[in-house]
Amino acid sequence: MTIIRPHKSSARNQRRPSWRTYQTQLQRRGRVRINRSLLLKCAGVLAAVLVALGVIHHRTPSPPPPVTALEPTPAGGGKARDELLAKADVQDLLADRPVTDLLEKRIYVHWGDQKLAVEGSIDQALQHYLAKRLYERTSRYIAIVVMESTSGRILSLVGFDKNDPDGNPCLNNHFPAASIFKIVTAAAAMEHCNLSSGSTLTFNGAKHTLYKSQLKNIQNRYTHKTTLATSFAQSVNPVFGKLGRHCLGQATLERYAEAFGFNHPIPFELPLASSQAPVTAEPYQWAEVASGFNRDTVISPLHGALLAAVAPNRGILPEPSIVDRITGPRGKILYRHDAPRERRHAVKAQTALELERLMRETVRRGTARKLFRSRAKDRVLSQLVIGGKTGSIDNTGHDARFDWFVGFARPSGSQEAIVVSVVVAHEKYIGRRAGEYARLAIKEYFRPRIAPKQKTSG
């Protein structure tokens, strides 16, 4: 068991006072109560004198109500909530602490003279399994995030940083999003441009380039016809570049990027830098953003899991959590992760259904086909519905290549899915790919949860 002590953290604006501020206020209230008591005694003496003089009638003053430290009255009145700490308060409590602290099942935090128990959501067996299978020799970074798609509970947070042995890059936001941003573009195109997975689209030139000449709406003998589903599955840059340039534009790209969690903080119990998708007024830059053909759109692996969750989660962007609950003295529950009251819809449910089809096509016939080609013969994978999106791009120095896979998996006939987000920064040689880690994670998670198929007698 690990015992950690909180550090001082900067004040946060635009939200209710933190628990630390609240405790300070209680101490001040205590001093005010003592002073009020003295005043009441003086008032009692004065009242007795006045009664004796016949100036006022006798009345015994009521003592002030006691202040309860663990059950504050919420601002504006009303019934107090069961838990004292909000998610932002937990971030204060755990600020400046390494991610590895929260990978334990339970840790203890001293806050003042109170000892709090923090219970994490990590699946210990899955975490240890994946950590033992990291191929570090040819990699600069490896980050693997496994999460429940509906609840947002983090099940695994495995990381490797070649330059920082104690680091965990799962929460770092400096990774170029590359083609996984096509998830956002495809959803925006289906809602804003009235497209579907089967809509016919055209492009000229190679699939994985993005020249300005490829953004022209021309039809000639060199023009290729395709569909949105095929373009997504095969990651055809010119198609998505044209959607960004001619159909979506700056305002729509910005709106859907924010709907999917970019450009603003994501609520989480640990400090999490926001992912960024800057969109300028330059039309060619719209094409770059929409296709993921740039290094300015950056994202954390944890946020990549949220992108993948929108499709199986009926369009809802979940709120991630790595803390199940925090208890104080005598088992008092101070914090408990529950689904937020107001669920945030990134897209409509029908759009999410179409987006799931695109991601399943990527696994069946697209860029992830080779990674899952033998799954029909696998006892576990053959019973799962799997979808995903791949992406790859070099860093600015061209000495590392970022390799992405984000996707979902659920048993056939069930809506209870997990999502996986993996990024690997390969150096001179390619080691284990992101999609291979994702396959390992999916198979290991469902292995004890999938019953063997019953053999039919013939």
Features:
458 residues, 5-stranded mixed sheet, 10 helices, globular, alpha+beta, Beta-lactamase
Describe this structure in words.
This protein folds into 2 domains: 81 residues; 299 residues, Beta-lactamase, CATH 3.40.710. α4 crosses α9. Helix content is 30%, strand content 20%. The protein has 10 helices and 16 strands. The protein is globular and about 75 Å long. A 5-stranded mixed beta sheet has the order 1-2-3-11-12, with helices on one face. The protein has 458 residues and is an alpha+beta fold. The N terminus is likely disordered. The protein starts with a strand and ends in a 12-residue tail after the last helix.
User: What's the tally of helices?
Assistant: 10
Count of discrete structural domains: 2
Mean pLDDT value: 85
Class by alpha and beta content? alpha+beta
Question: What is the global morphology?
Answer: globular
CATH architecture of the largest domain: 3-Layer(aba) Sandwich
> Beta-sheet strand percentage?
15-25%
Sheet with the most strands, sense and barrel status = 5 strands, mixed
